[in-house]
Amino acid sequence: MTEDFELILAREAQLMYERAKGFTPFKGDLTIWRGEIAGRGEYRGLKFEVEVKIPPTFPFDPPIIRMISPTDHPNVDPETGRVHLSILDQWKPEYHVYHAINTLKGVFAKVPPRPLFKKPQKTPIPSLSESGAEVPPSEFLDRIAALERQVKELQRKLQEKDETIASLRSRLTTHAEVAIGTVQTSMKVPVDEKLELESEKIAIEDLIRSLEEKFEAGEIDPTDYTRLYRKYKKQWYIVNKKLQSLRGEVESS
Questions:
Q1: Alpha-carbon gap, residue 226 to 110, rounded angstroms
Q2: What CATH number is given to the structural domain containing 49?
Q3: pLDDT value at position 251?
Q4: Is the pLDDT of residue 235 over 80?
Q5: 111, 120, 147, 160: least surrounded by Cβ within 10 Å?
Q6: Would you state the pLDDT for residue 212?
Q7: Average pLDDT taken over every residue of the chain
Q8: Count of domains observed in the chain
């Protein structure tokens, strides 16, 4: 892992903690984040677990998002759990991981996910001949001791990782203060708001596309289609107007 990529991961970690509440690194690995999105409607109270992987080519390539919880949703592959979003297909290097997560939350807010119930597969119980002879007590204790050593080693590595993250955050903050300056600091709010609006716009476009596919497949009647289409188009128009206004502010500043 290069030093530049470590700095990128540290920056993404800082933004994730600030703007993607509930998502944390999986086993201390900053390239894998896991979190939960709450269910809605009749599935209120359920939690849908999400995993986000940051590839080595980030930010030029998008993060990979998949549902760990079996999920029934138009934007989720039922077999692999892979999440499909327009923001991922139209990824830009200036986007951040939390933009993709917030876009997914927006899509789920408008079209709530449902649990996907799969038929459980029976796991064959190994016979004595398949599993071998019974493990002697002494060997069993040796295995426990080895596992305890592995746990301690992992805890030590995790502590080192935490110390590295703290060091990278400190360095990143120092570099940012020197490089950004007062002009870019004053532009930060409109630029961040612009990216948020772009994410929301893409999420609404996803909903419109999904609605049209359902209408063409005969899964929704014309009355509901017209009502929802007008609703989403109105939301898209409002977001687009705000986005155009912000673009003008950023370009003129």
A1: 16
A2: 3.10.110.10
A3: 63
A4: yes
A5: 120
A6: 80
A7: 80
A8: 1
Q: Tell me whether residue 164 is in a domain.
A: yes
Token digits for 87?
A: 């923001």
Rounded to an integer, what distance in angstroms lies between the CA atom of residue 97 and that of residue 168? 18
Question: 3-state SS of the chain: helix, strand, coil percent to 5?
Answer: 60, 10, 25
| Domain span at 207 | 3-116+150-252
∠ CA 97-41-103, nearest 5°, is 15
User: CA 76 to CA 87: how far, in whole Å?
Assistant: 14
pLDDT digits (tens, 9 = 90+) for 149-172: 776 776 777 677 777 777 766 776
Residue type at 164? Answer: T
Tokens of 128: 């004595």
Collapse the DSSP code of 119 into the 3-class scheme (helix H, G, I; strand E, B; otherwise coil) and give the result: coil
CB under 8 Å to 216, separation ≥6 — which residues? Answer: none
Q: Indicate whether 82 belongs to any domain.
A: yes
DSSP 35-66: EEEE--GGGTT-EEEEEEE--TTTTTS--EEE
SS3 of residue 237 by DSSP: helix
pLDDT grade for 86, boundaries at 50, 70 and 90 = very high
Residue 194, token pair as written in the block: 């612009």
Which residues 6+ apart lie within 8 Å of 43 measured at CB?
112, 113, 114, 115
Q: Is 131 inside a domain boundary?
A: no
The answer, yes or no, to whether residue 213 has pLDDT greater than 90, is no
